């Protein structure tokens, strides 16, 4: 008779005592050329992250040249006075580095990630790109063609099409915020290397820029390295550019972007509200998370679990632009998609969720779960140098103090259920929401009109 082998089980690991954590505080300084520098030493982070913020906002783009900031941002990696576009890409690759750039309403961001051992070489390349970008005719023409090729694909994407329509509806026609961030076919087609260089020379200089450097600086003379690289970039001083106020019209109404035959309807419901400078922001973050921030939120519980209308609906607040005087704004929105026949019922239930929230409020249990999810996962969220650098750069572009993120977590912990309820109800008033639906107007217009949530207008998807 064969004897069965005995299995030996190792003891199950036990969780240790949680260690205190706070969002890291940066050290602030400046180079001789006027460039502001925030540094944050993170032992063990051998991949260093660098975020460069250039205060060249979209509203500074010349009339008729929307998208020139985006083309400029992409062109920074397309050659310098020392390297052609191909050579620049090869040098970055030899460093094991990645360099990305994009333009948004506050300005242009360049994001570099590189092993600490090759930081000097990679920063030298970025410094060359900022100091003497080539902006060669052939490269700008190629970037313009690429951008023109992207636009039809974006218009074919229901969520991108909804976002474009919501911006057009919310903001005045003469506001840059009413138009696509990366330009339209008409405006991008008019961009050439002369336009890109003119925008660069007028708005890009170290005196109005900030570099955020995060990683393990052991054995690195960061001061000398920064002086030798980014310190070589020169430019004139400049007066701070005035930040225009954000104005919007959130009169309750519905716009249907007609897509005949569509089997789904993309929903985007929004308005503008206070940004991070407002004292209500922590409560608004908490309340919005309870409304639609996760699978356990109210919207998901009703529209996804109970009714089966959707795979998920999310509510969120996204800062659009901030100002030194605190007069910025954020987009407050609810987004998702539902099957076409249930568009009317889904919107009806969504409005019922909002009304129920206003009448009965959030529960303490909902608030506690939100705090746990938002604050409890923060140490994991900021494990990488890139995540820390990106958040610090966000604070710079939004004119926030360096300790803002750390303070925000403290305030989230102390925000009560009543405060969170009031904030989210004020953020999403049932009679002050602009609703954009991308779908088959012939099928959804009648049921939506019957809801009485605002005048319904149909526009072409073109």
Question: Overview of this structure, please?
Answer:
- The protein is α+β, with helices and mostly antiparallel strands.
- Helices cover 40% and strands 19% of the residues.
- It has helices at 68-75, 85-94, 119-131, 137-156, 158-170, 185-189, 193-203, 222-228, 281-292, 298-306, 343-360, 364-376, 378-381, 385-397, 404-414, 417-427, 441-449, and strands at 27-30, 36-41, 47-54, 98-104, 107-115, 209-215, 253-258, 264-273, 313-321, 329-339, 434-439, 455-460.
- Strand 4 and strand 5 form a beta hairpin.
- Helix 1 (68-75) crosses helix 7 (193-203), helix 9 packs across helix 15 and helix 10 runs antiparallel to helix 11 (343-360).
- It is globular, with a radius of gyration of 25 Å.
- The termini are far apart.
- It comes from Streptomyces daghestanicus.
- Residues 192-374 form the Peptidase M16 C-terminal domain.
- Residues 41-167 form the Peptidase M16 N-terminal domain.
Give a summary of the structure in a few sentences.
The chain is 40% helix and 19% strand. With 462 residues, the protein is of the alpha+beta class.
What's the topology here?
Elements: E1 27-30, E2 36-41, E3 47-54, H1 68-75, H2 85-94, E4 98-104, E5 107-115, H3 119-131, H4 137-156, H5 158-170, H6 185-189, H7 193-203, E6 209-215, H8 222-228, E7 253-258, E8 264-273, H9 281-292, H10 298-306, E9 313-321, E10 329-339, H11 343-360, H12 364-376, H13 378-381, H14 385-397, H15 404-414, H16 417-427, E11 434-439, H17 441-449, E12 455-460
Helix pairs in contact: 1-4, 1-7, 9-12, 9-15, 9-16, 10-11, 11-17
């Amino acid at each position: 008779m064969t004897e069965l082998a005995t299995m030996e089980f190792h003891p199950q690991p036990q969780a240790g005592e949680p260690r205190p954590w706070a969002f890291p505080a940066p050290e602030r300084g400046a180079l001789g050329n006027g460039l502001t520098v925030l540094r944050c030493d993170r032992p063990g982070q051998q991949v260093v992250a660098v975020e460069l913020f250039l205060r060249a906002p979209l509203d500074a783009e010349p009339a008729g040249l929307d998208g020139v900031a985006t083309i400029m941002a992409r062109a920074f990696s397309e050659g310098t006075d020392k390297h052609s576009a191909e050579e620049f890409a090869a040098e970055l690759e030899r460093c094991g580095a990645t360099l990305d750039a994009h333009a948004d309403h506050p300005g242009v961001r360049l994001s570099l990630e590189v092993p600490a051992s090759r930081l000097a070489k990679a920063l030298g390349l970025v410094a060359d790109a900022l100091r003497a970008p080539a902006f060669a005719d052939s490269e700008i023409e190629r970037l313009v063609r690429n951008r023109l090729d992207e636009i039809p694909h974006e218009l074919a994407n229901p969520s991108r099409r909804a976002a474009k329509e919501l911006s057009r509806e919310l903001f005045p026609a003469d506001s840059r915020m009413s138009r696509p961030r990366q330009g339209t076919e008409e405006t991008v087609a008019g961009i050439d290397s002369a336009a890109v260089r003119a925008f660069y020379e007028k708005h890009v200089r170290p005196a109005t820029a900030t570099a955020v450097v995060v990683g393990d600086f052991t054995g690195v003379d960061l001061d000398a390295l920064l002086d030798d690289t980014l310190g070589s970039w020169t430019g004139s001083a400049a007066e701070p550019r005035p930040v225009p106020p954000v104005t919007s019209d959130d009169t309750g109404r519905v716009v249907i972007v007609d897509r005949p035959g569509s089997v789904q309807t993309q929903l985007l419901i929004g308005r503008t509200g206070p940004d991070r400078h407002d004292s209500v922001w922590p409560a608004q973050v908490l309340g919005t998370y309870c409304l639609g921030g996760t699978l356990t939120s109210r919207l998901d519980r009703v529209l996804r679990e109970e009714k089966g209308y959707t795979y998920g609906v999310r509510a969120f607040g996204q800062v659009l632009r901030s100002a030194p005087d605190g007069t910025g704004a954020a987009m407050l929105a609810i987004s998702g998609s539902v099957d076409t026949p249930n568009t009317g019922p889904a919107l009806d239930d969504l409005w019922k969720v909002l009304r129920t929230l206003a009448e009965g409020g959030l529960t303490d249990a909902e608030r506690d779960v939100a705090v746990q999810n938002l604050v409890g996962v923060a140490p994991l969220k900021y494990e990488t140098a890139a995540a820390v650098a990106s958040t610090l750069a966000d604070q710079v572009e939004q004119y926030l103090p360096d300790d803002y993120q750390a303070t925000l977590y403290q305030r989230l912990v102390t925000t009560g259920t009543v405060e969170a309820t009031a904030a989210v109800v004020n953020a999403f008033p049932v009679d002050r929401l602009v609703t954009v639906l991308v779908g088959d107007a012939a099928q959804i217009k009648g049921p939506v009109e019957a809801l009485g949530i605002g005048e319904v207008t149909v526009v072409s998807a073109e």
